[in-house]
Amino acid sequence: MEKRIAILPGDGVGKEVSRGAVTILQAVAELFNHKFHFTYGEIGGAAIDEFGTPLPERTLNLCKASDAVLLGAVGGPKWDLMPGHIRPEKGLLKIRKELGLYANVRPVQYYSSISGISPLRKEVVEGVDMVVVRELTGGLYFGKPSERSVQKGEASVVDTLFYQKNEIERVIRYAFELAAMRKGKVTSVDKANVLESSRMWRETAEEVAKDYPDVQLNHMLVDNAAMQLIKNPRQFDVLVTENMFGDILSDEASVLTGSLGMLPSASVSASGPYLYEPIHGSAPDIAGMNAANPIAMILSAAMMLRLSFGLEEEAEAIENAVEQVLDAGSRTRDIALFGTPFLTTEGMIEEIKAALLDNEAIL
Ligand code: NAD
Ligand code: IPM
Ligand code: MN
């Protein structure tokens, strides 16, 4: 198989973990006889520095001309005081919008060998296997107006939570399709006791549910969901929610696995290309230190092989290699118990690559 993959490393640890995804994909290409063409593009702070804009036309065109996009992370203290429209994060929001990436799929998986790293008890996190489906191109992140003003000397500010009904429907439908292939349960999370947008969200979920008689739907208010996620996470199969609620709940959910550095994601559209990125950010506190966990990014590459290219065996080979190195005790600092040894980012990438090559020799 021959595919064009756009690589957008971005900023901070985004650059370090992207290298890991490319290394692993190159190994997969060799092992399974595929040709992956990697083309690099700038986004975020790196693009602001070079081109004065967080998403240059060239990067957008590159993505549109590719079969899939892999993105590291954007942002960092260097650009934190820039005005809203030229912040690094604006580049990420724009690429999601331009590519029509309406659903962001964030699997949360329990790994028995690192269960001890979660601050939650093993009995609580054991067997967690859920997916957060986050609406990605609407809601509070994109509604207009979003601005400040001063009237009669009084400063005020507004952000808007806006949805068209079809935007709510398509992401909920995606969640039902996914649940139908998994454990058959959708939890729709909203704030319907307060927000009109949430009441429409809830109604829409009920309507969509009629088309999926084998999938069970329940509703949960977002504050309760934040609590239930750490109290009884095994109750969840597919959790679907508004853009900002999903952003917050998925970082929280990473604690079930043990670290933000473990969670991959896929962002899907009606017609492709899809975009794959870890859920974490540029981690300024550890950027440039060869200390970031590359697993979230490497698992995002596995999701790409499965969802964009239909390469199930190759995706599983990566996932198995990750599981194998964790079982063997390899750790980056974020998933190492205090006082125990850990690898660098590069070290972990090499271990995963070695496990991948090793497994293939056995097959
Ligand atoms: P963050 O996700 O970058 O980091 C939060 C914490 O998790 C930090 O302590 C960090 O060291 C740790 N962490 C994150 N990824 C890790 C990894 N792979 N391995 C080990 N530890 C990891 O969130 P933040 O600090 O709130 O944000 C920093 C910057 O990143 C901001 O500019 C923010 O806008 C941006 N950001 C970007 C994305 C993205 O590009 N998708 C996502 C989130 C945040
Ligand atoms: C994420 C990030 C982004 C978001 C930011 C950087 C715009 O937190 O991908 O989760 O809020 O969507
Ligand atoms: Mn986030």
Describe the protein's architecture and organization.
- The protein is built from twelve helices and twelve strands.
- It is of the alpha/beta class.
- It has two domains: 210 residues, Isopropylmalate Dehydrogenase (3-Layer(aba) Sandwich), CATH 3.40.718.10; 139 residues, Isopropylmalate Dehydrogenase (3-Layer(aba) Sandwich), CATH 3.40.718.
- Strands 2-1-3-12-11-4-5-10-8-9 form a ten-stranded mixed beta sheet, with helices on both faces.
- Helix 7 links the parallel strand 8 and strand 9.
- Helix 8 packs parallel to helix 9 and helix 11 crosses helix 12.
- The relative contact order is 0.16.
- The mean pLDDT is 97.
- The site of nicotinamide-adenine-dinucleotide has 22 residues, from helix 1 and helix 4.
Beta-strand residue percentage: 15-25%
CATH topology of the largest domain: Isopropylmalate Dehydrogenase
Summarize the biggest pleated sheet: 10 strands, mixed
Question: What name goes with the CATH superfamily of the largest domain?
Answer: Isopropylmalate Dehydrogenase
Portion of residues within helices: 40-55%
The top-level CATH class of the largest domain is Alpha Beta
List the uncertain runs: none
The pLDDT mean sits at 97
Number of domains: 2
Number of E-type strands: 12
Helix run count: 12
Organism: Mesobacillus selenatarsenatis (strain DSM 18680 / JCM 14380 / FERM P-15431 / SF-1)
Subunit structure: Homodimer.
Keywords: Amino-acid biosynthesis, Branched-chain amino acid biosynthesis, Cytoplasm, Leucine biosynthesis, Magnesium, Manganese, Metal-binding, NAD, Oxidoreductase
Enzyme class: oxidoreductase
